[in-house]
Structures are given as structure tokens and as C-alpha cells.
Write a structure and sequence with these properties.
The chain is mostly helical. It has helices at 5-21, 24-27, 37-53, 78-83, 89-116, 119-129, 133-139, 145-164, 168-184, 190-202, 205-234, 252-265, 267-270, 273-288, 295-314, 316-321, 330-348, 352-378, 389-397, 416-421, 432-437, and strands at residues 406-409, 425-426, 443-446, 461-466, 469-473. It contains 21 helices and five strands. A five-stranded mixed beta sheet has the order 2-1-3-5-4, covered by helices on one side. A hairpin with a 2-residue loop joins strand 4 and strand 5. It is elongated.
Length: 475
């Protein structure tokens, strides 16, 4: 580790400086906004429910009452629960996810060095990963996709030297991080398949022992998702998705749309497009020099590609509409990138000019990433008044306390506006007419009076207006 100290210090300095360029400190203070604010708000709702209602760890819930009491379970909520213990839970969650991303980026350095044995090129590999808009945006966010990937990368960084040097503690620690990644995002369980393939390739007694130990990770991950499914069924949840969305259920048009999205539409999210093109063209040289690569690296590249293809087939429908599902691709991208740099190192090991050009190339990627993530951050914004402290005082003053059930409109999502208002209740996502008929709603919060016209018969009293947000009592 001492031999890497100067490299890690340089990497940390680079991460901090680039993070300021990306405006990470300012973003830490923001509520859910930007790309896929719908899904972000589900994570926010679960975190705030832990914080607001002091819920036990195994009783996660959100604000929308489509299930009994809003009780729902999905990904392992360990970070939601920890963040809820802080005075500013949303900021705490963003910071924790960012720190795990940093851990993942540092892990990339060690993964790359394991195969390259070149500190400069390993630094390049880790920094270029931190210029992916997909990882940079969702790494400082509420979704668990990038934190899960980061945990897996830390697992690989511990496992590769651990199995080579026969260090049981490193291997065991690696398995814990692989398990954490799979708990945070079920699809990352497929990383254990790559790990199993590598252990079978190694074939030593310690590798076989690690393979047996790995089954414990499978059992732990399986236990959580079995619990989550039963928990949701018990509380009549019909929203949380805990299954696959395979390609064979789609039409030919949807299949073609998925290819277009992954290859063209979403390509801006992976890297600066010239970078992606260079990586794709470089694969030709990777294939030509395939036999010159370390056999373990060949196994990892092959295994990660096969697993990624299986993942695409299993979650094709979700990938079409959610670019954050492509975060899973990055383990394969990482191993392919390391293979390409390994080939480059064979022919240009001492070429100072190409090394310098590579690091200058990073600057273009950084500024592209900064621009595109800022664009993603502004793509969807919610009404700024809803999260205002004055709005909370206004609702409490008029009887809409935290124990009342509200209807927040217009809002097609389950939790976007409810998580801003921090109230249990309903939105246009629910069957509003029947809820009003059954008197399940105490108040209506509305930012557009035209949206409430159809429910005039249910309005008992107009309570007032706070900066363009209207409050009505229904019973």
C-alpha cells in the first residue's frame, strides 16, 4: 500500500477538484430533481419516512398510501436508514452515496494496477471513469444503482490481490462488498456469477473454498428479496418492481427502440461520444492481441460481457425507459478498458507524448461531463414552494398536520410532491374518485386550480393560499 500512497493522494486531489467542478457540494443541499425525479423521490420518501416516523429498520415505508400505511420494500434500505438518523437526511444520503462512489473510483485504480502494473495508466483508468455523466450524476444522488456498482468495484479491488496472495481476510472482505452491492441493487447479484467463473478458472483449493463461502452471499441476498416480496404482498403493495422485464415480452418495434436507446440515445450518458468511439475502435486491437492478455483478465472480460448480455435480455423493457439501468454495463466497460490499456502499454509503454495526450484528453471529458450533468440536473424540477418551511407552517396552521392524509395534485407519480410536503396521502397516481367517495382524504393540496375542478363536490372548505399553493379541506 505504501508504494501506492503518492498515487492515491494524487487521485484524491483530482477527485476533490473535479467534484468542485461538478458542483457536488451545492448538489448535496438539493432535494430530488432532474432526470428520473420520479424514482429519486421514491428513495427520498423511504428515507424521510424512517426519519419522520422513527420506523424500525425492517418496516420501510413511503408517503403514498397505495399500500397499507405506505409500507413498501425494494432495495436493501441500509443507507436510507442510516441517513434518517441525521438532522438533514437527504444531504446525508447524497454524501454517503458520493463517498461510496469515491471508494469505487479508488478501487478502479487498484483493479487496473493489478493487471497493468503501471501507476500512471491506472490513474488514467480511474479518473476517466469519473468523467462518465451516468456515474457522476447518479453517484451523487438518491438512487442505489451507482452505490451498488461502487461496492462491487471495491469487492473486485479486494478480491483480486486477496486470491492471488492467498489472503483470506481480503477475500472475505471482498465477498462482503459483493453482497452489499447485490443487496443495494438485485441485478448486481450477477457479478457473483463472474466471480464464480473466475474462481473456477483459478481452480486452487482456496479458490474452491471462496466459492463455497460465496454461497453465503447468495443466501443473504436471496433472503432479503424474499422478505421484500412477502412484505409487499402482506401490505398489498402493487408498485414496487421486484422481478424481471424480459425482451421476449416485447414487440419488434420495442426491441428496435431498445437497441436505438442503448446505442444512440443513451450514449451521451456513458462518456463524451468521441471517447466512446475511441474505445469501440480500440476493441479491434484488443481482439487482435487477445492471447497476450492475462488469462484472468480474459476471463473477467468474457464473463462480464456474457453477464451484461444476459442482463440486457432480462431487463430490456426497463432499460428502454430508464438510462440508469445501464449503470450495470460499467463493470464490463471497466474490464474492457483495462484490456485496451494493457494492449496500449505493450506498444507505447515509454511514449511520454501519448501519455500526456491521454491526460489532456481527460480534461475534455471532464468539461463535457460537467455540462451534461448540469443539463440532467435541470431536466425536471418540482414546484420550489412545496419544500419550503413556510409551506409546512401554513399546512400545520390550517390543520393539515403530519397525521392527516392529503391529495397532492397535479402529480402523476406516487411520491414526488408528497415527499416534498412530507405528508402521507395520494396523488393522481391513485384512484382519486373512489378515495374521495370513501372519505380517505382529509385535505387537497393543489398548485393548479384547474386540476381540482372535477372534484368540487368533495371540497368542504377553502383554507387558503401559500405562494400559489392552494389548500382545501374535504371532510
Amino acid at each position: 500500500m505504501k508504494t501506492h500512497l503518492s498515487s492515491i493522494i494524487l487521485l484524491l486531489i483530482a477527485l476533490v477538484c473535479i467534484s468542485f467542478l461538478y458542483n457536488y457540494p451545492d448538489i448535496w443541499t438539493l432535494p430530488a430533481q432532474g432526470a428520473h425525479v420520479w424514482r429519486q423521490s421514491d428513495c427520498v420518501a423511504m428515507t424521510l419516512n424512517y426519519h419522520q416516523f422513527d420506523l424500525p429498520f425492517l418496516e420501510p415505508a413511503c408517503y403514498n398510501l397505495q399500500s397499507d400505511g405506505g409500507r413498501v420494500a425494494g432495495e436493501f434500505p441500509v443507507f436510507y436508514f442510516i441517513a434518517a438518523q441525521f438532522d438533514k437526511p437527504l444531504m446525508a444520503l447524497r454524501v454517503m452515496h458520493t463517498l461510496l462512489l469515491f471508494g469505487g473510483i479508488i478501487a478502479v485504480y487498484f483493479i487496473a494496477f493489478h493487471f497493468l502494473q503501471r501507476r500512471l495508466l491506472s490513474l488514467f483508468c480511474s479518473i476517466i471513469v469519473f468523467t462518465s455523466p451516468l456515474l457522476v450524476f447518479y453517484g451523487n444522488n438518491f438512487l442505489t444503482d451507482v452505490p451498488a456498482l461502487s461496492a462491487v468495484w471495491i469487492g473486485w479491488a479486494l478480491f483480486l490481490p486477496g486470491i492471488q496472495r492467498e489472503k483470506p481476510l481480503l477475500v472475505f472482505s471482498a465477498l462482503l462488498f459483493f453482497t452489499l452491492g447485490a443487496l443495494l441493487k438485485a441485478s448486481q447479484t450477477l457479478q457473483l456469477v463472474i466471480l464464480a467463473a473466475l474462481l473456477l478458472h483459478i481452480g486452487t483449493q482456496r479458490a474452491r473454498a471462496a466459492l463455497v463461502l460465496m454461497t453465503g452471499g447468495f443466501l443473504l441476498v436471496g433472503s432479503w428479496y424474499i422478505f421484500a416480496r412477502e412484505y409487499n404482498q402482506t401490505h398489498h403493495d402493487s408498485y414496487y418492481f421486484l422481478s424481471v422485464a424480459p425482451i421476449w415480452k416485447l414487440s419488434l418495434y420495442e426491441m428496435g427502440l431498445g437497441i436505438w436507446r442503448m446505442v444512440i440515445s443513451f450514449s451521451k450518458n456513458y462518456f463524451w461520444r468521441p471517447t466512446s468511439i475511441v474505445l469501440l475502435l480500440s476493441c479491434f486491437y484488443l481482439i487482435r492481441n487477445w492471447k497476450n492478455l492475462d488469462s484472468r483478465l480474459r476471463t473477467l472480460i468474457t464473463g462480464s460481457i456474457v453477464v451484461t448480455l444476459f442482463y440486457i435480455l432480462a431487463f430490456y423493457q426497463k432499460i428502454i425507459g430508464h438510462e440508469y439501468y445501464t449503470v450495470f454495463f460499467f463493470t464490463a466497460i471497466l474490464f474492457i478498458m483495462i484490456g485496451i490499456i494493457k494492449v496500449y502499454n505493450r506498444f507505447h509503454a515509454e511514449n511520454v507524448f501519448t501519455h500526456a495526450f491521454m491526460f489532456l484528453f481527460i480534461l475534455a471529458n471532464v468539461f463535457y461531463c460537467r455540462s451534461y450533468t448540469a443539463e440532467k440536473l435541470q431536466s425536471t424540477r418540482i414546484h420550489p414552494v412545496l419544500a419550503d418551511k413556510g409551506m409546512q407552517d401554513f399546512m400545520v396552521r390550517h390543520g393539515a398536520t403530519s397525521d392527516k392524509h392529503i391529495l397532492s395534485i397535479p402529480d402523476a407519480s406516487p411520491n414526488i410532491t408528497l415527499s416534498q410536503l412530507q405528508r402521507k396521502g395520494y396523488t393522481n397516481f391513485n384512484f382519486v374518485d373512489s378515495l374521495l367517495q370513501q372519505q380517505q382524504i382529509d385535505f387537497i393540496v393543489c398548485s393548479d386550480t384547474t386540476a381540482i375542478a372535477q372534484w368540487q363536490p368533495y371540497l368542504k372548505e377553502y383554507k387558503g393560499n401559500y405562494n400559489g399553493i392552494y389548500l382545501y379541506r374535504t371532510k
